[in-house]
Amino acid sequence: MAGYGPRRIVCLTAETTEIAFRLGCHERVVGVSGYAVRPPEARKKPHVAAFQTAHVGRILALEPDLVLGFSDLQADIVRELVRRGAQVLVTNQRTLDETYTAIAMIAGALGEAEAGERLIVDLRSELESVFAANSGLTRSPRVYFEEWDEPFISGIAWVGEIIERCGGEDIFAGRRGAAATDRVIAPEDVIAADPELIVASWCGKKANLARIASRPGWAEIAAVRAGRIHEIKAPDILQPGPSLGLAPTPRCRRSSAAAARSALVPSLGNVCGWPAQLHTYMCMCKVISCQDLSLPEPETGRPWSGSPAAPLPRP
After folding, report:
1. What is the pLDDT of residues 32-77, one digit of tens each?
2. CATH of the domain at 58
3. Is 203 helix (H, G, I), strand (E, B) or coil?
4. Is the pTM above the cut of 0.85?
5. Alpha helices in the chain (DSSP H)
6. Residue 298 belongs to some domain of the structure
7. Whole domain around residue 98: which residue ranges?
8. How many domains does the chain have?
């Protein structure tokens, strides 16, 4: 650990918590967000914030040298902390490149610049290896990613980048860069765009895939007709930090069925005419199941069972 930098750190979000721990600063972290789940030992730290709310008094009682936050949505919390004398660093990354920059900024503030460089290299390498694994395919399915359902919100920048780098077409790419309140989508807009794949990730709650499929007028959407409605858990995709590079492979190795499924990924595009790179990222993240591809289950040779709209179980 470096010989300088803050000694008592409070992290207001899951992203900043994970970054601080990955930089080797776990002993210096004295408070975290209640949404922090990675690494598991972070959950043992005192919880001082949700996302748009925080216990300012509890934070100040921890006597932090530095408070780390993320997003313009925490502006009110930050204002109060600064007004009461706290040192605060807030990042507001919206793209993958901005995520790398945010990691570098936090690492510098914590006196761990070299560890930050290594983390950025690792994260970039993890993502690029997934993106490059099945490059060259020309078919680009229309993808609707829903980050909230009341109202519908879509067009989050880093997710759109991932969709495109995996070979898909983000149907609301034009909304990128805007605040969440400016990315509200009308149900009719989704129907008109006719996505071939729907992926939901509702921050703070489980996505209701059956309810998505039963929305008025959505029965004619290509993704609904084909049963291609899936969920990515929010911590895996909605936190712009190291979790974006958690792909898949380490967790899949703990389930032989999942590992066999991942081994099928390179051939999926040829079997079903569907872009293999989307299956690479999303199947490995437990999102795209093989049941709707009429492929045999690797371990039994039988077709996949269950509802086509059901997400893969997490090991």
Report:
1. 999 998 999 999 999 999 988 999 999 999 999 999 999 998 999 9
2. 3.40.50.1980
3. coil
4. no
5. 14-22, 56-61, 75-83, 96-109, 113-133, 157-165, 187-193, 209-213, 222-226, 234-237, 249-252, 256-272, 276-284
6. no
7. 9-129
8. 2
